[in-house]
């Protein structure tokens, strides 16, 4: 149980960290891509506004550090350079590679300007322009070029800018950020694994104290129960048995049963329970363990059917598996509808790697909500699991917890579902 808790803690922490990593890396790269594209669009807008060429750089567009002359109060102070000119400086017109396609109002290409790019000829520029005009888009990407269209007095202007350098930079940034994120993720996961024991130490200590309490209390309670039982027998020898002595003996039997199941549960939930693992005929074991409940079912007006595939073998603790069958069968007989049916099946799973033990009972009104709660200690839902009138259910609410502990000690799984008016418990024994 402790190892399962530790694994669950590590998995949850690792998944949460992975989600955060994805969010951070994705956010950083998203902002980087958005900003790069925005800068490219700003430059395209500048070229379009100046009829296909860069204007001369005007340093007055920058914010002045020196105080302004306020002698002429009517003239407003110079403002900061507009956002659309951000990234534009003296060298921008020489660093930017672009070509321009002009078209008339009918969509016919009238002129191209490839003087600012070496990788594209005039004929190729015309093909690029036709492709954009046919698509009807006003901006986007075509090959290695980002383009934007604008309207002029004579028709349309389409500016294509070479963005290979920006694309390479974005890709490098993505790879580097992913590599750093992956390295950080692995490092943090290793630290989580190393310190996970310390993180769950309070839970482990509480669990160990609980197990010790159950064991110690069980042994301590046995002595007074034995004395009470002996005194009751003496009272019955001195005088005739009466309703009081009978009630005392019934409660003693009930407490002894509860102590036995609590100690069994504590034993099964140890990290390495003392099980005797060996190959045995599980078909015979299941049949022998379920058969005694046939008479009990009949006395309650119910029918028990045992459907076991013969000759199946299993490697495990035979005594624990027999106890598992007894718990599930007794539970099914107890909670089956009045006049209902209980079915115990043993068969090989579809993949041929597991032996499935399936115990089902009729239940017209199954429990509502999460059925895994049925495996919790002392969980009882008589009102919804049984509709038999006047029938006392008894039990301690820990039988299914013991069944779950037995299955887990064999590194297997147990589940519960309600369908077609049946409650079905399935133990997938690996």
Please tell me about this protein's structure.
By secondary structure, this protein is an alpha+beta fold. 50% of the residues lie in helices and 18% in strands. The chain is built from eleven helices and twelve strands. A five-stranded antiparallel beta sheet has the order 2-1-5-4-3, with helices on both faces. A hairpin with a 2-residue loop joins strand 11 (413-419) and strand 12 (422-429). 21% of the residues are buried. Mean pLDDT is 82; it is low at 62-81 and 382-392.
Give the structure's gist in a few sentences.
Helix 1 runs antiparallel to helix 4 (164-199) and helix 5 (201-238) packs antiparallel against helix 6. This protein has a 5-stranded antiparallel β-sheet, sandwiched between helices. Strands 7-9-10-12-11 form a 5-stranded mixed β-sheet. Strands 6-8 form a two-stranded antiparallel ribbon.
Topology readout:
Elements: H1 2-49, H2 92-95, E1 98-104, E2 109-113, H3 122-135, E3 139-142, E4 145-151, E5 155-162, H4 164-199, H5 201-238, H6 243-268, E6 278-281, H7 282-290, H8 293-299, E7 303-308, E8 313-316, H9 318-335, E9 341-348, E10 355-362, H10 382-385, H11 399-409, E11 413-419, E12 422-429
Parallel strand pairs: 7-9
Antiparallel strand pairs: 1-2, 1-5, 3-4, 4-5, 6-8, 9-10, 10-12, 11-12
Helix pairs in contact: 1-4, 5-6, 6-11, 7-9, 9-11
Number of helices: 11
Number of strands: 12
Unreliable parts: 62-81, 382-392
| Average predicted local confidence, pLDDT | 82
How much helical structure, as a percent, in the residues?
A: 40-55%
Estimated share of beta-strand residues? 15-25%
Characterize the main sheet: 5 strands, antiparallel
Series of H and E elements: HHEEHEEEHHHEHHEEHEEHHEE
Q: Which word captures the global form?
A: elongated
The oligomeric state of the chains shown is: single chain
Radius of gyration: 40 Å
Distance between the termini: 18 Å
How are the strands of the biggest sheet laid out side by side?
Answer: 2-1-5-4-3
Structural class: alpha+beta
């Amino acid at each position: 149980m402790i190892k399962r808790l530790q694994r669950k803690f590590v998995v949850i922490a690792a998944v949460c960290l992975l989600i955060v990593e994805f969010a951070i890396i994705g956010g950083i790269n998203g902002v980087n891509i958005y900003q790069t594209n925005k800068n490219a669009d700003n430059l395209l807008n500048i070229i379009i506004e100046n009829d296909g060429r860069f204007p001369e750089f005007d340093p007055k567009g920058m914010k002045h550090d020196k105080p302004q002359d306020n002698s002429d109060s009517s003239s407003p102070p110079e403002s900061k350079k507009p956002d659309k000119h951000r990234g534009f400086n003296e060298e921008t017109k020489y660093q930017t590679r672009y070509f321009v396609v002009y078209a008339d109002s009918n969509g016919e290409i009238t002129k191209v300007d490839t003087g600012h790019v070496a990788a594209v000829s005039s004929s190729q520029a015309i093909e690029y322009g036709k492709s954009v005009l046919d698509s009807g888009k006003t901006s986007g990407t075509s090959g290695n070029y980002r383009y934007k269209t604008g309207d002029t007095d004579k028709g349309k202007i389409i500016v294509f800018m070479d963005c290979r350098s920006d694309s390479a930079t974005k890709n490098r940034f993505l790879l580097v950020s992913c590599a750093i994120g992956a390295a950080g993720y692995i490092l943090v996961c290793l630290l989580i694994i190393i310190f996970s024991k310390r993180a769950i130490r309070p839970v482990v200590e509480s669990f160990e104290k609980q197990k010790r309490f159950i064991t110690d209390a069980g042994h301590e309670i046995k002595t007074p129960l034995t004395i009470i039982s002996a005194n009751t027998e003496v009272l019955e020898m001195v005088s005739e048995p009466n309703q009081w002595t009978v009630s005392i003996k019934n409660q003693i039997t009930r407490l002894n049963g509860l102590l036995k199941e609590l100690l069994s549960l504590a034993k099964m939930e140890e990290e390495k329970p003392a099980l005797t693992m060996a190959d045995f005929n599980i078909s015979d074991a299941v049949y022998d363990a379920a058969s005694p409940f046939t008479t009990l079912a009949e006395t309650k007006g119910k029918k028990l059917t045992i459907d076991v595939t013969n000759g199946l073998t299993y490697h495990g603790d035979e005594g624990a598996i027999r106890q598992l069958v007894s718990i599930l069968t007794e539970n099914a007989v107890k909670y089956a509808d009045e006049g209902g049916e209980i079915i115990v099946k043993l068969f090989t799973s579809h993949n041929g790697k597991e032996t499935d033990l399936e115990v089902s009972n009729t239940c017209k009104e199954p429990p509502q909500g999460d059925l895994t709660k049925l495996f919790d200690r002392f969980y009882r839902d008589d009102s919804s699991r049984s509709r038999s009138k006047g029938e006392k259910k008894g039990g301690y609410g820990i039988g299914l917890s013991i069944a779950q502990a037995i299955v887990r000690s064999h590194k297997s799984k147990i589940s519960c579902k309600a369908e077609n008016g049946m409650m079905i418990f399935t133990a997938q024994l690996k």
